[in-house]
Design a protein that fits this description.
The structure is a single chain. The protein has helices at about 55-65, 75-80, 95-100, 135-145; strands at about 1-5, 15-25, 25-30, 35-40, 40-50, 80-90, 120-125. By secondary structure, it is an alpha+beta fold. A hairpin with a 2-residue loop joins strand 3 and strand 4.
């Protein structure tokens, strides 16, 4: 597992990812017929990228502000700040989500309308809550890397680590 701050640093191969996002203010979101208000704070969204361009293409779309909302997570990516993504080549989004089972689910069904295994693919990441050790190691490794030409590395936001 690695952490990338830029889609350009992600491989163009299939895999799973966990997008780290920060909401600076309350956000009203909709999942089907349900509307809920998410508080400001940090969130982790588990997804997969199996199509052309793999994780690089999917993360580039998530990180773009100029897009039409298509997936549940687009509501967060359009309103919030993307901190980066934990990525795992050939990984499974549900397995990544299961690794985060100690973190609360803020809205059942969010990002998992096509999933029969998970209650949601979105987790609230409360300040001070630890991630699994391999995730923390990936985050720390990215934090210690010098910035790359593509904008990645060393970009972990202050106040999280």
């Amino acid at each position: 597992m690695i952490f990338v701050a830029s889609a350009a640093d992600a491989p163009a191969t299939p895999g799973a990812y966990v997008l780290a996002l920060r909401l600076g203010a309350l956000l009203d979101v909709r999942v089907g017929k349900i509307t809920a208000r998410l508080p400001s704070g940090d969130y982790l969204y588990c997804g997969s990228a199996k199509g052309p361009g793999g994780m690089r293409a999917r993360l580039a779309r998530h990180m773009r502000k100029n897009k039409r909302a298509h997936w549940h997570v687009d509501q967060l990516t359009l309103a919030g700040e993307i901190l980066g993504a934990f990525i795992l080549e050939d990984g499974d989004e549900c397995a990544l989500n299961a690794a985060l089972d100690a973190l609360p689910i803020p809205l059942p069904g969010f990002g998992s309308s096509d999933c029969r295994r998970c209650a949601a693919h979105l987790r609230l990441w409360p300040k001070g809550a630890a991630l699994p050790s391999d995730w923390e190691n990936a985050r720390k490794a990215a934090e210690s890397c010098p910035p790359l030409a593509g904008g990645g590395g060393g970009a972990w936001p202050r106040g999280r680590g």
